[in-house]
Amino acid sequence: MMDFILDFVMAAIRAGTPLIFCALAVLIAERSGVLFLGVEGNMLIGALTGFLGALFLGSILVGVMLAMVLAVLFGLLLSVILIRLPADQVVIGIAFNLAALGLTGYVFRLAGPDAVAILPQRVEPLLFGLTIFELSAFALTIVCWWFLFRSGPGLKFRSTGESALAASAAGINITKVRTFAMMAACALASMGGVALSVGWVRTYMDNISMGRGFIALAAVYFGKWNPIYAALAALLFGAGEALAFRSQAMGIPLNVFYLRMVPYLLTIIAVGIAGKSKGPADAGKVYLRR
């Protein structure tokens, strides 16, 4: 019985790790005042880039680095569109997700039949059966919490999401802060994709994220825009996904599609229980420098 519980906890952590990265991405962006609905698209791009880099270049580290470089470039692109133009953040986020879904599908097919494979390299556990991805997710959660709520720069950072006009009057460069936030958010979301394709399933398929970016959004709302609570919510949703896989492996006589619904149903229930969450006051609002 203890072995089953331990295996389930480890499975929940592995399933929740990509969600933690993406939840931190959403939280960083929205704490700065930018709605980050494009987290799903960034996750897909990171998953494909990290996987192809590791597969064809023979190094997981190279794959991760390529994913991070591409994520920062996309972060700069989104910051120009969302912050400097500025465009509607909801529309751009949805459009980016759809574009990323088509782009990753095209590039994956362009890579040829050799890309349809299991990654030969494996990310080895470092501590208590946890790999660098899980340990990094936990460490970044603590760092993010400390930065936002226990540091002076974090206070200035949060002020841009609560009142951009007041923060600007205090001498804070809103455009610079939000640009940095978008670059960090895209890098974190991309890392979530790498943790999924390289660290967990070790393969890639079309739409591999399967809505996990939106589950990460729900984790942030459920966690009240607090990194610790958001990470715990991500682990809760990861436990729902682990339960679905475990139930399927144990031969529970239910249609497999019903079992795969479990994490999404759990997300809906959790958000419903949490009720209306009050996020940063200026998140999603256009800021025009005066």
Describe this protein's structure.
- α1 runs antiparallel to α8.
- The chain contains twelve helices and no strands.
- It has a domain at 14-116 and 126-213.
- It is mainly α and 290 residues long.
- The model has no long low-confidence stretch (mean pLDDT 87).
Task: Compile the SSE list and pairings.
Blueprint: H1 2-31, H2 39-57, H3 60-84, H4 89-110, H5 132-150, H6 152-162, H7 164-169, H8 174-200, H9 212-222, H10 227-249, H11 256-260, H12 262-274
Helix pairs in contact: 1-5, 1-8, 1-9, 1-10, 2-3, 2-4, 2-8, 2-9, 3-8, 5-6, 9-10, 9-12, 10-12
Please give the largest β-sheet. none
Count of DSSP-assigned helices:
12
Question: Globular, elongated, flat, extended or rod-shaped: what is the shape?
Answer: globular
* SSE succession: HHHHHHHHHHHH
Q: Could you say which structural class the secondary elements and strand pairing correspond to? A: mainly alpha
β-strand percent reads: under 5%
Radius of gyration: 19 Å
Helix content: over 70%
Residue-averaged pLDDT: 87
Number of DSSP-assigned strands: 0
Low-confidence stretches: none
Instruction: Give the N-to-C terminal Cα separation.
Output: 64 Å
Features:
290 residues; globular; mainly alpha
Short summary:
With 290 residues, this protein is mainly alpha-helical. It has helices at residues 2-31, 39-57, 60-84, 89-110, 132-150, 152-162, 164-169, 174-200, 212-222, 227-249, 256-260, 262-274.
